[in-house]
Amino acid sequence: MNIETLGIVLFDGFETLDVMGPVEVFGRLPDCKVKFISPEGNKKTSSQGVAIETEKVTNPQYKYLLIPGGQGTRPLAIDKEYIYWLKQQVEYTSYCMTVCTGSALLAATNLLNDLSATSNKLAFEWVTSINNNVNWQPKARWVKDDKFYTSSGVSAGIDMSLQVVSDFYGLQQASTIIKSMEYVWNDDASHDPFAVNLA
Amino acid sequence: MNIETLGIVLFDGFETLDVMGPVEVFGRLPDCKVKFISPEGNKKTSSQGVAIETEKVTNPQYKYLLIPGGQGTRPLAIDKEYIYWLKQQVEYTSYCMTVCTGSALLAATNLLNDLSATSNKLAFEWVTSINNNVNWQPKARWVKDDKFYTSSGVSAGIDMSLQVVSDFYGLQQASTIIKSMEYVWNDDASHDPFAVNLA
């Protein structure tokens, strides 16, 4: 199972590392291209000021999708038109990943209903308030359920991405990427050092 | 000592996370703006396909500078015109950081001569060959000497950036950023899990 193209949903106020951690991991695979997408097809700027051009996508076309978090998720999670667009994109996927508060957007589509998922622990109360039909996990670095991988905050997206690489391409490929990134992988999804932040 | 603006040198073939890890850390400071710069002022694309607009800078204007690594450093380290431009930028700084093979570019300016520095361990032989008047450290997550902070490969740039935040703003500020990033900081510069990669 190869990820030839990974679509990454961008919006103003995305969190830089939510996007760029996974880009670093998947971009190191031999044949994986990363595409940035939005309903508008314009430039989107992260909370830290990084501006990225996006491709305008109406009809879904990406089988692998990643939804980052960030302050920009707050208005979008209650924007019905946006969530309708996102739902169409996610329904089309074979696999869909979220980082941080990206799971709030995914939860708003109702496609996570009755499934287990996680999110940023400092924003956990807000995220879980978006949809209480999700089995929200307060202690998890990432969660896989059905076709969804949802991760905890920001840096957890790197750990989750390495797990996806390991699941799809094998542990050896993940190890090669780890070494070249000089990254210390937390490879245990149940080890969540930030779970204690939950009130 | 506040970093009001951090200039980040971009070139084609920069490594995505070398740049975006530090952007995430410094971008979370209350009053720090990040600017992407180059001698040409055009768009620069990372090895993973991330395209970023840069500001054309001729006369140096940034007191704080970060130089990332990546495949793009290979031709630039022997490009005399580029290294002359870079040397002018670095001479102007109060502090200059490098990530990964960014230290090869810095070493090529001769401004690291007789100082201690480190770099990516998988690329160590090439980096050290650029200038053997540097006290290259084969086992270090990052090194501070004089006004320079040089880090090991890719992810090490995040650890180094957190140290810079701690040095400039205090440990409490670094801790706040760590929690919001859900990042497990390797705060010990001498702990280098990738030193063993050195032949």
What does this protein structure show overall?
The structure is a homodimer of 199-residue chains. Chain A is α/β, with parallel strands linked by helices and 199 residues long. Chain A has one domain: Rossmann fold, CATH 3.40.50. Helices cover 34% and strands 20% of the residues of chain A. Chain A has 7 helices and 11 strands. Chain A has a 7-stranded mixed beta sheet with strand order 5-2-1-6-7-11-10, sandwiched between helices. A two-stranded antiparallel ribbon of chain A has the order 3-4. In chain A, α1 (16-27) packs parallel to α6 (156-169) and α6 (156-169) runs antiparallel to α7. Chain A is globular, with a radius of gyration of 15 Å. The first copy, chain A, starts with a strand and ends in an 18-residue tail after the last helix. The A-B interface holds A 15-17, 19-21, 23-24, 26-28, 33-34, 46-53, 120-122, 152-156, 179-184, 186, 193-194, 197 and B 15-17, 19-21, 23-24, 26-28, 33-34, 46-53, 120-122, 152-156, 179-184, 186, 193-194, 197.
Q: What's the level 1 CATH class of chain A?
A: Alpha Beta
> Which percent range fits the helix content of chain A?
25-40%
The largest sheet of chain A, given as strand count, sense and whether it forms a barrel, is:
7 strands, mixed
Q: For the CA atoms, what is the radius of gyration of chain A?
A: 15 Å
How many strand units of chain A?
11
Q: From the 3D structure, determine the CATH topology of chain A.
A: Rossmann fold
* CATH architecture group name of chain A: 3-Layer(aba) Sandwich
What characteristic shape of chain A results from the CA principal axes? Answer: globular
Strand order of the largest sheet of chain A: 5-2-1-6-7-11-10
Q: What is the multimeric organization of the chains shown?
A: homodimer
Distance N to C terminus of chain A: 40 Å
- How large is the count of helical segments of chain A? 7
Report the average pLDDT across residues of chain A. 96
